[in-house]
Amino acid sequence: MVTVPAEEARPSQDHIHGRQAVLLIHGIGEQWPMATLWGLIDGLYQEEMKQGSLFSKPDRIGKVLDLRRVHVEKEAFGIKTDFYEMYWAHLLQGTTWTHVQDFVWMLIWRRRSSTPRRLSKIRCIVLAAMIVALLVWGGIYLAATTKVIPEIPGLLALVPVLLAFVWMFLKLFCQKWGLGYLGDAARYLRPSPENIAVRQQIRNAGIDVLQRLHSDGPARGYDRIVVIGHSLGSVIAYDILTYLWQKRTAETQTTPPTNKTYLHQPCLLKMESLLSSTSDLKEKLSGFQDLQYRLCHEEQSHGRSWKITDLITLGSPLTYADYLMADSKDELSKRIDRREFPSCPPTLEKGGYIAWPDPPCDKLRTLHHAALFACTRWTNMYFKRDLIGGELAPLFGCGINDIGLDGESDKGKTVKSHLMYWSESEPESCKKLKDAMCLDNRPSRESKSPSLG
């Protein structure tokens, strides 16, 4: 039994200097710079905009000159807050039908047993549509060339015109939706040789932005960073955090201990005790997330610069990770066990540990390279009618706070719900998203003290 006292569940004032940052990563499509970020702010913070406490300033973090930083004064949240957008659409230019075709065929011809239930019907519909299209096209071509319908030659004369219109419509439709939307997913989610460079460019751009946000220059010096990923942006966010954590763990430099207090790591001990004694965190999720928050600050107190307290995913295709990132659910689980993919909670080492002695200081332990979510909370929101998003806990761990939404508007109850997470017509979703962000610097989403046992 492990209990976190109320006084330990609150963030130490030593870690609060008065600035926090939110980084939003947009999803698929031909997005314009700042369009997604302003959409989020317009949907969540209309009152702040009316009061004049929210305004645009130069972005000194990203390298895209079209981006801006949205600054919120201290009066809104009790702490100065900056909103940024990580823009990556310009890095995915040059997509061709070959990329899309390769991706679609890879998905369609997968074993039926490895296809998630939610996608089985879509897969059958796509296959049926392809067969019908081929039959219709073949029938028209046969009729036009063999003149099997001689009694209505006027109809046959219209066949070339009809085919021209159909081809023009399909070309325009597919150019917009096929290359513009599906093409992004095809390039990023398919690790074929021609896509590796693009994937690496996007990830390096994201790592660079977060590295800059972590720096303590006079223009920044953030105490806390919240990362939000929508749609494909949630997969990019997961990858960026994974590689950034590994990079910063490898580069960690600790100072030899000068006293016993510096050696004390109570939150780490409580986290290991909790994970060793609990197989399911659903009933203790609030307490677990508070402990993650505390552990993040404990790591900072030992000289380890990791400021990302929260990852929030919206309508995330990671719900199909066993279909998109592996050949089956078993293979995904193996890759998580092998520490290729970080899970929440993190995978325990033999003996029930998530940290090992740091070489420069053998009395101070360092979290292992896949223990990202030991000190970063993961909240996942999805509309139940959103075909792209869904639960993540069954694949990536019971420490993820999955929030399912029924939808209050007509669009929120259809497939269009994928675009409604910060819409004014979905007040429940907006409230849940604001609660998950915790911009008023509350460590806990609950008013009572957390209990972990």
Structure explained in plain terms:
By secondary structure, this protein is α/β, with parallel strands linked by helices. The chain folds into 2 domains: 19-27 and 32-86 and 195-253 and 307-346 and 372-437, 3-Layer(aba) Sandwich (Rossmann fold), CATH 3.40.50; 97-189, no CATH class. It has helices spanning 35-44, 46-51, 74-77, 97-108, 117-146, 153-189, 193-214, 232-250, 260-263, 266-277, 285-301, 321-324, 329-337, 393-396, 427-437; strands at residues 19-25, 54-58, 68-72, 80-86, 224-230, 308-314, 355-358, 361-367, 377-383, 401-405. The strands form 2 sheets. Strands 2-3-4-1-5-6-9-10 form an 8-stranded mixed beta sheet, with helices on both faces. A two-stranded antiparallel sheet has the order 7-8. The longest helix has 37 residues, at 153-189. The protein starts with 18 loop residues before the first strand and ends in a 16-residue tail after the last helix.
Features of this protein?
Rossmann fold; disordered N terminus; 453 residues; eight-stranded mixed sheet; 2 domains
Write a compact overview of the structure shown:
This protein is an alpha/beta fold and 453 residues long. The chain has 15 helices and 10 strands.
User: Could you list the spans in which at least 5 consecutive residues all have pLDDT below 50?
Assistant: 1-16, 443-453
User: Which range does the strand content fall in?
Assistant: 5-15%
* Count of domains: 2
| Biggest sheet overview | 8 strands, mixed
CATH class of the largest domain: Alpha Beta
Mean pLDDT: 80
The total beta strand count reads 10
CATH architecture of the largest domain: 3-Layer(aba) Sandwich
Strands side by side in the biggest sheet: 2-3-4-1-5-6-9-10
Give the helix/strand class. alpha/beta
Principal-axes geometry comes out as globular
CATH topology of the largest domain: Rossmann fold
Cα radius of gyration in angstroms: 25 Å
Indicate the multimeric state: single chain
Order of helices and strands: EHHEEHEHHHHEHHHHEHHEEEHEH
Distance between the termini: 5 Å
Number of helices: 15
Helical amount among residues, as a percent range?
40-55%
